[in-house]
Amino acid sequence: MKDLPCKTSQVGIDPGKHAFHLHGQDAAGQAVFRRKVSRKQLIEFFATLHPCTVVMEACAGAHCMARKIAELGHESKLISLQFVRPFVKSNKNDFVDAEAICEAASRPSMRFVTTKTVSQQTLSALHRVRDSLVRDKVCATNQMHGFLLEFGVTLPVGNAVVRRLPVLLAEHSLPPRLVAILERLHAHFKYLSEQIGQIEKELNRQLADDAIAQRLLTTPGVVTITASLLASELGDGKQYRWALSGWARVPVPWTRLCIFDPNRFAEGVPPVQQVGDDYAFAFLRRKLLRQQAFTDAALDARDLCLDQRAHTVAVLNA
To answer: Residue ranges of the Transposase IS110-like N-terminal domain (predicted)?
Structure first.
């Protein structure tokens, strides 16, 4: 193994929670070594290895490990699991998976996942915590509405009435134990609202130091939450060959993006599929639907005003 550093040109890593399986190969694609190391031994191993290309699956912890390996002078790449599966041979095990990663990464047309920065991962974590708190808040609201409905008290849809729940409880004669349960849910609702507000303030503080997010905020209709989500998922967008490819992570049909430039179909712009993070897709889809509903309502109101104006003019001219 003395000539291991000079022979190895590419290393595939099958990551695990505590152990990593490595498969190294030379420029001709011949296997050079196979090794199982711990998380600590992995960094020590690459610190002594000749600079080469290191490829691993894009999974939990892969972005952090890719950054550490890149700091040691190696070229780190992340590859999606769906692109590795076709290269897995029979008798599947961790070393075979690492070899398949090397084989997939050696394809000239292979697409890789861009390594996220620390800021991007932090923004992503904040978004997921906020989403969890919002879901808990909706659950608490629905429970309060449901319990009150069982005792004949109906409330309008929304959070405004829930905030003044103590006043409503004083106006109705309800069992003391039910009142205690509702008060506990109301306190939980207030706690969740405060936590969501604090996370949104933290997002604002992080966005103030993010040049990409600041540019996104100049886009009409893009606010703090949307800008931070796009910044955490798309980054600077340089990893996309076509601008349309970046929109594959956004819930907008790709044909709509070409509606103002039909010549793009003849320029070789490939159609894209909806890919990317499920949370980002769901969030942006909800936002798109809300904006579409608002736009439709505004257009309906405009058409109604035009119809009324035309009717008034017709009456005056009669």
So the answer is: 11-150
- Per-domain residue ranges for the chain? 4-105, 118-234, 243-317
Considering the entire predicted model, what is its pTM? Answer: 0.70
For residue 44, count CB atoms less than 10 angstroms from its CB and return exposed for 0-12, middle for 13-18, buried for 19 or more: exposed
Class of CATH domain 4-105: alpha beta
Taking only the tens place, the pLDDT of each residue in 247-276 is: 555 544 433 433 334 444 444 444 444 445
In Å, the largest CA–CA distance within the chain is 101
Lowest mean pLDDT among 38-52, 83-97, 151-165: 151-165
- Sign of the C-alpha dihedral computed for residues 234, 237, 239 and 241 taken in this order: positive
Q: How far does the chain reach from its first CA to its final CA, in angstroms?
A: 100
pLDDT in tens, 291-315: 555 455 444 544 555 554 454 444 3
